Amino acid sequence: MPDGPTAKRRHKRSNFGFLLIDVINPLDFPEASRMQKFVPPMMRVLRHLKERCRRAGVPVIYVNDNFGRWRSDLDQTVEYCIDTKSRGSNMSQRLRPEPDDYFVLKPKHSGFFGTALETLLQSIGVRQLIITGIATTSCILATAFDAHMRGYRLFVPRDGTIANTAQEKRVALKLMTNYLKADTRLASKIAFYSARKLRIS
């Protein structure tokens, strides 16, 4: 196949993939008011981690709910979530995808269910996933279980996800640590030599 615009944007192969789950989000579900106070610190962590991933050549992959909007695409989903009337508009605006980021729409909790995520990860060569976003007890947990079953090594930085309460988050992280062998150290402790080599401190 000849080179074209798509080929030019193809990401180099990487051992690592950085997943941001449901961070493009209107936060209009009933429990969102409880987790609202956790959004700003998570947002700062994810912006910093994303920048470090981009510098190291680690692909940034948004895995996002379609919010039941079955006719929506990436642009429509982003625009819907950054609407100024939305509780999640600031987060969606600050964490919105850049042109060379990947974006996968999911219909259910797991990023792997009914999506092309696994095919995308295989095409890049990813074997280790950094999973972040909303919410630790549901979509993060479901995606981590499915990733573990597929043999991925998991990093779920504990300051890079949020849940309804701190206690619920701790329980979910402990489950992932004990049963999925997930590494839940702080995002700042994850450093990259390159897209193929990780340094953990």
Reading off the top of the CATH hierarchy, the class is best stated as Alpha Beta
* Record field, number of beta strands: 8
Total domains, how many? Answer: 1
CATH fold topology: Rossmann fold
User: What's the overall average pLDDT, rounded?
Assistant: 88
Q: What is the annotated CATH architecture?
A: 3-Layer(aba) Sandwich
**Radius of gyration using CA atoms only:** 16 Å
Parts with pLDDT < 50 across at least 5 consecutive residues: 1-8
| Shape call | globular
- Beta content comes to 15-25%
Class derived from helix and strand content: alpha/beta
Kindly state the percentage of residues in helix: 25-40%
CATH homologous superfamily - what is it? Answer: Isochorismatase-like
**What summary fits the major beta sheet?**
6 strands, parallel
- Write down the secondary-structure element order: HEHHEHHEHEHEEHEE
N→C terminal distance: 43 Å
* Count of individual helical segments: 8
Folded structure, characterized:
There is one protein chain. By secondary structure, this protein is an alpha/beta fold. The chain has helices spanning 5-8, 32-35, 39-56, 74-81, 89-94, 117-124, 136-149, 166-180; strands spanning 16-21, 60-65, 102-106, 128-134, 153-155, 161-162, 190-194, 197-200. The strands form two sheets. Strands 1, 2, 3, 4, 5 and 6 form a six-stranded parallel sheet that branches. The chain is globular, with a radius of gyration of 16 Å. The chain starts with a helix and ends with a strand. The relative contact order is 0.19. The model is unreliable at 1-8 (pLDDT under 50).
